[in-house]
């Protein structure tokens, strides 16, 4: 029993170490260019050990994305809970998103669409993000930062469609992720702001 417990703890620890090594490599170099052999070599473990924990590269990638999203969710919840108001929270979240996309390589973005389970995961997460966005918008309307005359269900669906268009047309090949984020997310968000909201958002824009 003790041996089984020790083996479980070891595998959980190794699982985290694998993700710590693999995910930055994927993000910086693309997914296809990083081999399971490369990851095993860096960790000084056999490829067989690697496959005992992750059945394939897609399984590893999915676990890494899920872990990263859980960490981000905890950070987001803390920001929302401790912000003075909803606009402070939204601006803080925009800053996080801008920082995150700076580290992403073009090859990673291009490669990730090749993995069906990852796309399925993104589709599921999109529903969670949509629900969270609606809650922020609702609070923003109540606090006087967003217009009351807008159909936000429609607007959010348009935002989703906009992001998909950017990815499908591979616009990131001709424009930086920061430029795309600003001209889609930030500009669209500004469009539904009241004068009070515009003033707050413009202060953030000037700091970029």
Task: Give a description of the structure.
The protein is mainly alpha-helical. It contains ten helices and no strands. It has helices at 2-29, 36-43, 47-53, 57-82, 86-102, 106-112, 116-142, 152-168, 177-191, 195-206. The radius of gyration is 20 Å and the shape is elongated. The relative contact order is 0.09. The model has no long low-confidence stretch (mean pLDDT 92).
Euclidean distance between termini CA atoms: 56 Å
Element string (H = helix, E = strand): HHHHHHHHHH
Rg calc = 20 Å
Query: What percent of the residues sit in helical stretches (DSSP H or I)?
Result: over 70%
Mean of residue pLDDT? 92
Q: Beta-sheet strand percentage?
A: under 5%
How many strands appear in the DSSP assignment?
Answer: 0
Q: Report low-confidence residues grouped into runs of 5 or more.
A: none
Task: Draw up the topology in text.
Blueprint: H1 2-29, H2 36-43, H3 47-53, H4 57-82, H5 86-102, H6 106-112, H7 116-142, H8 152-168, H9 177-191, H10 195-206
Key traits:
208 residues, mainly alpha
Report a brief summary of the structure.
Helices cover 79% and strands 0% of the residues. It has helices at residues 2-29, 36-43, 47-53, 57-82, 86-102, 106-112, 116-142, 152-168, 177-191, 195-206.
């Amino acid at each position: 029993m003790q041996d089984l417990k020790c083996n479980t703890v070891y595998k959980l620890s190794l699982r985290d170490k694998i993700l710590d090594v693999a995910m930055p490599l994927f993000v910086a170099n693309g997914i296809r260019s990083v081999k399971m052999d490369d990851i095993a070599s860096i960790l000084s473990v056999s490829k067989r050990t690697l496959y005992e924990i992750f059945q394939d590269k897609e399984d590893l990638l999915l676990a890494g994305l899920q872990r990263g999203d859980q960490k981000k969710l905890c950070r987001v919840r803390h920001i929302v809970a401790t912000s003075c108001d909803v606009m402070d929270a939204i601006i803080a979240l925009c800053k996080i998103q801008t920082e995150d996309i700076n580290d992403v390589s073009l090859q990673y973005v291009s490669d990730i669409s090749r993995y069906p389970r990852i796309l399925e995961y993104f589709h599921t997460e999109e529903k969670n993000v949509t629900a969270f966005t609606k809650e922020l918008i609702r609070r923003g309307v109540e606090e006087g930062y967003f217009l009351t005359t807008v159909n936000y269900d429609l607007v959010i669906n348009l935002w989703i469609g906009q992001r998909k268009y950017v990815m499908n047309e591979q616009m990131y090949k001709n424009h930086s992720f920061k430029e795309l984020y600003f001209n889609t997310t930030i500009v669209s968000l500004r469009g539904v702001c009241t004068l009070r909201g515009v003033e707050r958002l413009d202060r953030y824009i000037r700091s970029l």
